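ok trying this again, last paste got cut off
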Amino acid sequence: MSDFYRDLLTGLLFITGLLGYLCGEFIISSALFAIAAIAGNLNQNRKRSKAGRLSWD
């Protein structure tokens, strides 16, 4: 899966979580926000490791 599709999936999860929150589905939206956060961190770490920068320095 390319970086664009990963970023798109993360964005869709976030927007779906936001819409779920507005509709009152708090448990589902919390789970979607958590998945989006984990996916975003995984994507960021994967991009950083491809560039050869594994530390925050």
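PB: full thing came through this time. The chain has a mean pLDDT of 82.
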